[in-house]
Amino acid sequence: MLKKLLYSSFLLLSVLITQAQDLHFSQYFNAPLLVNPANTGFTPDYDYRVGVHHRNQWASVGNPYRTQSIWGDLQLLNNKLENGWLGIGGAILQDVAGSSILTGTRAFGTIAYHQMLGARSLLSGGFGLGWVNKRIDLSKLTFDNQWNGKFFDNTINPNEPFATNQSNYLTLSAGLNYSYFPTDNLYLNIGLAANHINRPSETFYGPTSADTRLDVRYTAFANMSAKVDDRWIVNSNMYVSQMANAWETVIGVNTQRSLNDDGSLQLIMGGYYRVSDAIIPMIGFNLKDYRFTINYDATVSSLGRFNNGRGAYEISIVRDGIFSSSSGRSVKCPSVRF
User: Fold this and answer.
1) What is the CATH number of the domain that holds 218?
2) CA 170, CA 213: separation in Å to the nearest integer?
3) What number of helices (H) and strands (E) belong to the chain?
4) What b-and-e string marks burial along 202-237, b requiring 16 or more CB atoms within 10 Å of the CB?
5) What is each CA distance from 171 to 150, 174, 216, 242, 276, in whole angstroms?
6) In the predicted model, what is the mean pLDDT of the chain?
7) For the residues 252-277, what does the mean pLDDT come to?
């Protein structure tokens, strides 16, 4: 009973408090457009990529909190521009809290330009425009004044000043990336981005004196890939996100182990840590142009007392592709690969 009450309280807070973190994935590096619009079209060895993502969390506390997405991007003008190219992309995400009490749907498009700076570095800038819909099922919510002394009675008028059960708005994002590749076996990348830079309003209430505008969400990341030998590539990553008083920091390492001579079959193994929240082991496979990755978030925060350390699992599938192997496409910047 205590677990259900705590879960319900948390869910109500997630419904009514708008100044919180956006949608997120532990495998943020497999959701590049969500992290930074400047990642759009940043596929040195390929013309396009598409991905799907599913996250399921807190199932052990109550009804699970589910997030899923589909995204894709591609290069344009690669063979038209001597030292750069254009990238366009888009994604659709949906976030469902509990038994559909709160549902968030987001669709956005992104565009980026990538410019070589000499032979060993690249600067990228991107913009994104998104549409967001947040919807709540008021019939599934209970409030303190519906307590009749014995139980919560949904037939009692809650007297809450809801004006609507939906909130719709447009959101703008922008970002920059810088990449440096001193050798063919070493790659460094940092990026900064800002989302909700137009500070849209998100509320289910009518006109109020309270500020219902979303805070700008800032993200930063740093990646390094190093080819150790013909069998091993090591990737280290750090991601930081801040929105109002909410912070998320994820750090970790994953390795790619080639299981054959040409690198078309790889084993992925790694581990990450979300500061003050979860330990995240990860495993996956690269099979030719497909990458399958699964991770599990083991809770180490105070929530672990109620979910027995069971946090979330996450699955992603990414497909990289070339439109035509005979197209004579230009590869302008190197990447660490087998």
Assistant:
1) 2.40.160.40
2) 12
3) 3, 14
4) bbbeeeeeeeebbbbbebbbebbbebeeeeebebeb
5) 44, 11, 10, 17, 29
6) 87
7) 96
Contact in structure between 248 and 218 (CB atoms under 8 Å): no
Q: Which residue has the higher pLDDT, 246 or 141?
A: 246
What does the alpha-carbon distance between residue 43 and residue 272 come to, in Å, rounded to a whole number?
Answer: 24
Asked, for residue 337, whether it belongs to a domain, the answer is no
Angle at 93 between CA 210 and CA 26, to 5 degrees: 95
**Quick check: is 247 in a domain?**
yes
Boundaries of domain holding 254:
2-321
Instruction: Check pLDDT > 50 for residue 5.
Output: no
| Total number of domains in the chain | 1
C-beta separation of 196 from 216 below 8 A: yes
- Give 334: exposed, middle or buried? Use CB within 10 Å, 0-12, 13-18, 19+: middle
Phi and psi, residue 303, nearest 5°: -65, -20
Q: By three-state DSSP, how is residue 3 classified?
A: helix
158 within some domain: yes
Mean pLDDT of 99-114: 90
Kindly state the percentage of the chain with pLDDT values over 70: 86
- Region 222-239: mean pLDDT is 96
Residue 72 lies in a domain: yes
Residue 58: per-residue pLDDT: 66
User: Is it the case that residue 15 has pLDDT exceeding 70?
Assistant: no
- Smallest CA-to-CA distance from 68 within 106, 32, 37 is with 106
pLDDT of residue 7: 42
For residue 115, what is the DSSP state?
A: E
The Cα 229–Cα 338 span in angstroms is: 9
